Amino acid sequence: MELFTGWANAGLPALFLASFLAATILPFSSEALLAAMALGPWGTLPLLLTASIGNTLGGLTNYGIGRWIPEGKLMRRLRVDPGKAERWHALVQRYGSWCALLCWLPVVGDPIAIALGLFRARLWPVLLLMFIGKAARYAVVIAVLRGMAWPL
Q: What's the pLDDT tens digit per position in 101-110?
């Protein structure tokens, strides 16, 4: 936890960076830093907005990877078998941008964001729904740590 205390001392910019990195394909966690900061002097709304915006922009980076790297090249690079790719395609075809609500999930959140870009889900609904999902997760973390019914 001491590692995150050092980051917490860097304040909201560190939280933004940690939240951004946690939403990319890099293995990084923003919840521990948010937890350290939620127990400190920072206000609830600045913590919630900083973490949610940073994490959403990181998720949109994954969306961009899927959108702008050619499908065949991306599939080879990520070593995705064709059957799995077809299942992701069917998921995006069936639920569309609504899948973005689940981009906060560990392990599958990044592939969902990439699939949304790869299979051309519309950007603005993806952005809005991704933000809502990620903000809800961070709101729960803050609420639990601060013993609040709702963190706003």
A: 999 998 889 9
Token representation of residue 58: 């990181």
Instruction: Judge contact between 65 and 117, C-beta under 8 A.
Output: yes
Q: How many CA atoms lie within 13 A of 66 on its CB side?
A: 28
Domain containing residue 18: 2-146
Residues 6+ apart with CB under 8 A from 108: 102
Q: Based on the structure, what is the number of domains in the chain?
A: 1
Q: Please write the tens of the pLDDT for every residue from 40-56.
A: 899 999 999 999 999 99
Tokens of 102: 């689940």
Tell me if 151 is assigned to some domain.
no
Give Cα separations from 24 to 69, 92, 145 (angstroms).
15, 19, 25
State both tokens at 6: 């050092």
Grouping H, G, I as helix, E, B as strand and the rest as coil, residue 8 is helix
Extract the tokens encoding 150: 């709702």
pTM of the predicted protein model: 0.85
The total of other beta-carbon atoms located within 10 Å of residue 3's CB is 10
